[in-house]
Amino acid sequence: MFCSLFRQLLIVWLLAAGQPVQAEISVADDTGATIRLAQPAKRIVSLAPHLTETLFAAGAGERIVGTVEYSEYPPAASRITRVGGYSRIDLERVTALRPDLIVAWQSGNAAAHLDRLRGLGIPIYLSQSNQIADVAGEIERLGVLAGSAAVARRAAESFRQRLAGLHKRYGSRPSVRTFYQIWKQPLMTVGGRQIISDVIHLCGGNNVFGQLSTMAPTVTVEAVIAANPEAIVASGMDEARPEWLDDWRRWNSITAVARGNLFFVPPDLIQRHTPRLLEGAERLCQHLETARSRRPAQ
Predict the structure, then answer these.
(1) Residues 1-17 as b or e (16 or more Cβ within 10 Å = b)
(2) Would you tell me which CATH number, out of the four given (3.20.20.70, 3.40.50.10540, 3.40.50.720, 3.40.50.1980), belongs to the domain 173-293?
(3) In the chain, which end has fewer C-beta atoms inside a 10 angstrom radius, N or C?
(4) What sign has the CA pseudo-torsion 133, 139, 144, 145?
(5) Distance CA 108, CA 251 (A)
(6) What is the mean pLDDT of the chain?
(7) Which one, of 54, 85, 52, 90, lies nearest residue 69 by Cα?
(8) Who's near 20: CB < 8 A, 6+ residues apart?
């Protein structure tokens, strides 16, 4: 009996020894900080709508236990527990969810909130995609952290292929001076480091306020008139074209107004750093093509 028991124990030990050991996961976020996990994250809290969407794209949607308001895409995101808004996080709700990873937005979430969560020992991945190509890398890194790397790699490759197609189609088109309007009061646009500025460049456009380093600078009507854009593009708050886009019609000295180049792109497609950004880019590129077609014959 002793020999039989010994053989059984030996077989169990040998089988266990042959199992692969889960290595520590190590990923650098967009700030250069290294996030280390002993195993793939199983309870993720996402602190921005675009990060929730990107996690789903990376195959990690089922691991999200908490997110913020306006996280409504894909539809399954609407059923996830809310922990406030991206700028006003309910820290107690976050900690009550016992997350083993928090995915946060560097320029959108309050640093004080993140510091408090970090002080509790919760690993935090900080995201800040400023170039379109950054989105693909983001998908891959989140996939590694969530243990869905294979799904994430496929999604990232699809994104890169589609982006390359847009570069090939629009990258050499004649430049269009473009003003992108985020909001009316205050009158806000995008600076050169903001990802929307990269979308404009992808489409062969030139952001008339691209020299500004602020992500979302406030400008004046006089500055827009002086910049004389050939196209004005706005997004507003939802799927409806904002009424205030037509307020520019009173300034017919602006080339964009004189030629009727007042365009709309839904904000979810261009103001969120997700795979759907390429849908927004496609629409913007088509608008700038329309602007080119309205140039006087030479």
Answers:
(1) eeeeeeeeeeeeeeeee
(2) 3.40.50.1980
(3) C
(4) positive
(5) 34
(6) 91
(7) 85
(8) none
CATH 3.40.50.1980 fits 24-156, yes or no: yes
CB 251 within 8 A of CB 257: yes
Calpha distance 263→265 (Å, rounded): 7
Other CB atoms within 10 A of residue 250 CB: 10
Q: Mean pLDDT, to the nearest integer, of 126-131? A: 92
The structural domains of the chain, with segments of one domain joined by +, span 24-156, 173-293
SS (H, E, C) the chain: CHHHHHHHHHHHHHHHHCCCCCCCEEEECCCCCEEEECCCCCCEEECCHHHHHHHHHCCCHHHEEEECCCCCCCHHHHHCCECEECCEECHHHHHHCCCCEEEEECCCCCHHHHHHHHHCCCCEEEECCCCCCHHHHHHHHHHHHHCCHHHHHHHHHHHHHHHHHHHHHHCCCCCEEEEEECECCCCECCCCCCHHHHHHHHCCEEECCCCCCCCCCECCHHHHHHHCCCEEEECCCCCCCCHHHHHHHHCCCCHHHHCCCEEECCHHHHCCCCCCHHHHHHHHHHHHHHHHHCCCCC
Average the pLDDT over 16-30 and give the result: 70
Asked whether residue 16 carries a pLDDT value surpassing 70, the answer given is no
d(CA 48, CA 15): 44
pTM over 0.85: yes
Residue bearing tokens 């904002």: 242
Q: Give the bridge partners for 178, in sequence order.
A: 207, 231
